[in-house]
Sequence to fold (205 residues):
Amino acid sequence: MTTARSEQSRRVDYSESTRNALVDSAVTLFTDNGYAATSLDAVARGARVTKGALYHHFTGKQALFEAAFDAVESAVSARLVQVVTGPGGAWERAMEGVRGYVNVCLEPSYQRIVIHEGPVVMGWDRWREAEDHFSFGLVRATLEALIEAGEIEALPVETTARVLFGALSTGATIIAGAPDPERAGAEVLLTIERVLEGMRAVGPR
Fold:
């Protein structure tokens, strides 16, 4: 029985390893070439597996793209959560989070897969749902922390979080579409910082 369990565990590990290799290959190719110009054959070659192994894990190209999208967003979310829940005061953590997000928007994989290709490949509604899943909760939690710490006025949380989330999403689109993304990133960062500073509570904190 122990041998059978070990064999099953090895099969599960191999299957997970194969899936991860396919997603990594897809992220690289979708980033470099875009969705339309990336073939499933190329993804399988990049992962060093057969096309049959790819179809064992994914029903097709769109399913593979959504897995690549999730991988990029999950990695970004994990990094930003670390920033906004790290050491320091609520205001400092929030500002670091905004700076961290702007830096993410300069990364090729995030620009290509999440901002440019995501709405087209996944459809607007599915893309917005995914963005909500990965990003909105973090914006809302950061806003709540700022209010609780007395750093900003006690504005309606849900509405304010939606407005800020929309501003950040728009900023990401501006950066990804700009001829000079770094300059656009600096302008977006300055604007978001000024908006948040305008919301700061009056008096000692």
The first helix runs from residue 2 to 33. The mean pLDDT is 92.
